[in-house]
Fold these 2 entries.
Entry 1:
Amino acid sequence: MRRTLIEGLLNGPLTEAAPAVDDPELAALAQEVERAAAASLGRSLSIRHVDAGSCNGCELEIHALGNAYYDLERFGLRFVASPRHADVLLVTGPVTRNMREALERTCAATPAPKWVVACGACAKDGGVFAGSYAIVGGVGDVVPVDLHVPGCPPRPATLLKALLALLNGHGR
Amino acid sequence: MTTAKPTPDNAWGEAWGEATHRLASCEARLVGLWADGAEARMALSTGRPELEFFHYVAVDGSFPSVGATHAPAIRLERAIADLSGLKARGAPDQRPWLDHGRWPLAHPLGDGAPTDGGEPERYAFLGAEGVGLHQIPVGPVHAGIIEPGHFRFHASGETIVRLEARLGYVHKGVERLMAGADLARGAELAARVSGDSTVAYQIAFARAVEAASGIVAPPRAAWLRALMAEIERVANHLGDIGAICSDASFALMHAHTGVLRELTLRAADHAFGHRLMMDCVTPGGVLVDLDRDRRTALRELTTTIRERFPRLVELYDNTASLQDRTVGAGRLDSELAQRFGCGGVIGRASGRDFDARRDHSYSPYDELRFETPVWREGDVNARVWVRIRELEESLRLIGQILDRLPVGPIHSEREPIGGPGEGWALVEGFRGDVFVHLRLGDDGRIARCHLRDPSWFQWPLLEAAIEGNIVADFPLCNKSFNCSYSGCDL
């Protein structure tokens, strides 16, 4: 273990530079969020993830945000275990009928001010599962959504951009 | 495949009973149990490459329960009752499984009768009696970044007396969406049954279509499929080994396997255009070819992992505080693993020597050299070691495939259209054997597609393995199983 630790100290970090928020759509959304944010939370956001019916592909990429290359926590962004500690709900999947109530209750348990980020193609409008008897629809059909991150699943870099846009939006 | 025609003396009914009997006496293993219209269907494996198929034409909307004498069938029968409305006569557990009373219709694969939309019934969890027992409800929304499901613990102090899982929260109605879909749409859905096993599902779906329509994917396509499948296995095993250690509070391992996993996903992205390799396989072949540069990049990936991984294995093996958590925790009895036909890492860590790549061999695995590591201890530690050795085998397989990748087309000349027909496939995903059974209609569209995740035969065993462990070890044991929620809920 010692060798691994020493090498970790001596070798440079793997962490990559933060992606620029170059997407005009994201920038516009960030401004909207800024307007909506009554009080600044400082440059720190606590995120609570809710899987409302995903295939688990989005979860894999959200997990990747924590690895050494993306290192989400350097931006003050961190995942928390309870919605009561969260500023942001990161919701994946189409919302299934069996998860609808759980999503509503999780959202209600999150203190204001809060933002809901819909992650992935399914979270927008149900994606490939749209039209199924078991699906309510996208996240926006159940709780108000502030930002949508496209992709199936979104790449970690795209997710990072979106979350940074959110952070900059109300941190300025 | 054998599908017995009903005869006046009801030979299929007798065959069904006979098959059930063989399951109960462990002469055969249950591979699948599903309903197609008014028929219950069953697939059995007896150790030969071919599967045996049985069917039972429902009488008064019911068929004789398999679960009454063979527990692995119980949840599958509950799912059949919810989705198709066919009841298993004499079933020991008749509670709903996927249907939480929130759908606008009942029996979506059957009559689809509208429901009144009233308050869902309260789910009756199995009980446990004793002095000082208490219940702990967990979920469906969990503390980590994981899928939703409900776990009901009965605990005596810290010790778990009974765990019962309630799933179905991420049921998306995949099999109903499949019905009537064209093959492209079917492949798109199959790729999203369980995102972490997207390659395994894509291959299983494609091979079932090919079997049903009598076409064969060209050799290069089969080899590229195997290449993707092994990359998927490497990525997932890296993730799981790290996550198990992380759940034992050893973050260093997680950080290092996380780096290797990221490199693997980036290499997959570079080679096939998608980090998880979704939508890369199609009935009849594959959609992406691999040029020389990309081949070199994949070779570099295996070199990097080969260089760095042994040190991590050493780290795992030599960290006493970590071993203290994993050795002896969540022990799964070998006899139970056999009886449930439990596939994948979980089965192989409990002495069940089964690998669909070898025992139901498909191209190109019949031409490749690989070992199937088996451990007997059945604890969290054994499941880590099986993953470690499998990952090394997968690196070997990737090397062989890159060396010997045949030249030629990546798609069959003939399009896989034209029904009717039936086909099946059993594919070894990172989690275990994925079974797909498909029936094409006269119009060449999907009439019925049943997808059975390996987790169907693993989730119930988690409940057995956790008994007597402390509640605080549940995340560790659960992670070492890493069952799919979405794959079972469909």
Entry 2:
Amino acid sequence: MEALVALAIGVLVGCGVYLLLRRRSFSVVFGLVLLSYGTNLFLFAMGRLNTHREPLVSLPGPYTDPLPQALVLTAIVIGFAMTAFVLVLALRARGMLGSDRVDGRGGDE
Amino acid sequence: MNLLLVLPVLLPLLTGATLLALARPALRTARVLAVASVTAQLTVAAVLFTTAANGLILSYAIGDWPAPFGITLVLDRLSSLMLLLTALLALFALLHALGGVDGRGAGFHALFQFQLLGLNGAFLTGDLFNLFVFFEILLIASYTLLLHGGGASRTRAGLHYVVLNLVGSSLFLVAVGVLYGVLGTLNMADLAARLAVVPATDATLVESAGLLLLVVFGLKAALVPLHFWLVPAYSSATAPVAALFAIMTKVGVYAIVRVYTLMFGAALVGPWLLWGALVTLTLAAIGVLASRELRAQIAWLVVFSVGTLLAGVSQFTGMGISGALYYLVHTTLVSGGLFLLADLIGAQRREGTHLTSGEYPAARRWLAVLFLVGAIAAAGLPPTSGFIGKALVLQAGLESSEVTLLWASILVGSFAVLLALSRAGSVIFWKSSRAPAAAAAHWLGSIPAAVLVSAGLWLALAGGPLTAYTDATAVQLLSRGTYVSAVLGHVKEAP
């Protein structure tokens, strides 16, 4: 399971970084989304990977750490809001500048 | 008494929420609420400042969850100084905005309050994840404030600013995740205590998290090569927003000072900071000289000041931190004032803030005096506080391994700033000979800019008490044990 999760995080972050470096705003936004997915998965894995364990100390038996789950929930909410905002901004930039390029060159000058 | 710690977070939150709930309130109502809120924040910050000046470290556990488990707010000398500085700058930026900028788009006052909420929270929090949350609050408010007023250049600069900061947020989360995975806590005091006894097998992991945090804070502080967002963003934002943003780079500097004095120690980041600061100083000096527009020039001055600040901080000595903190107060107020002044100049001539001769500003004499005072302070000439601050940083640099380079960068850079600002001033006020078509604005509108720009003079007058305070702040920062025991409630000495 560790290898699979590590691979998933690696692929997500790798694709995210690649897309971030592209010049059209759609790819950049998509890259940001993948990057934040990778980050969230990473943050979640920091509580160690366990199965069949409740995040409750009061029950007998081994328990899993609930804090990373709370952290990742916060990060997802914030990431979701930010993605919505950057999408609106990218659309507005497309309309206003007449180009969806983010490298400052092309039809917008 | 400790309950007072929540007010700097609560006041802007409630005011901002009220302004949103009123759903497009009359501009008059919004203005009254906003000014009342910022004045109240200034009062609270002043009370907290006098409390913290006694040397006590106050902490408040939100929801009464005990320290390492819940979120704590911590007030020490450094955070109270930053709170007071934020409130002071915000008040004058807001007063300037009442001149008409606030009516150019919806929700200016609500966003302004949320920006203050994020700033105050970031300065007060004692929890690393909570710092991330407050960073996000201040960032999302700044994204929309930056776009206030609309226009193509703001949209373009805004998109770059948002994307860069979102990447920064991801890196912040990764660093937080690594620290939690290894050490099992995110409370800064608890982290400091556990980092002191981290096993050798995990040391590399923790250090890489520490350096990742440096990238994040460096991006906020606009440390070269992470500075590319700053100049387009600051020079296209409306004047009160740009003035308030003068504190935003200082949030990055604050986080660097807090995290590395308390948790990781100087050895990890000292060299990175020093070399980063040197390159920042050099590039910013070139940027100041090369700018053809006054607001871009002031934005480069902000980058230059970050270089000076981090050059002082990178020593991690009492003298270096104290000098940097004194300079921080000076540069925040003066560069905020210069942004407001540039707005006044730009509104009163057809060429705006472009550094080309043509019309002189309508209120030429008065604005020229203000510009002279601001330029002298920014370049760091006596008798202003810029001179004192730079002298303190230079003095601290004597202990550095790279003393020659450090002195050369700061002194040559300051000379470049002086040259560029005198050229800008003479082009706008002397070489422009045509009478302007626009009438002079009412003199009342220039009061906020005048007060902030002349900060260079009154901070020099208050130099004695202020340096005594920053000296004490540096001593407090460098004795980690007091912070740790004040937050965790029992003595857990960190070496």
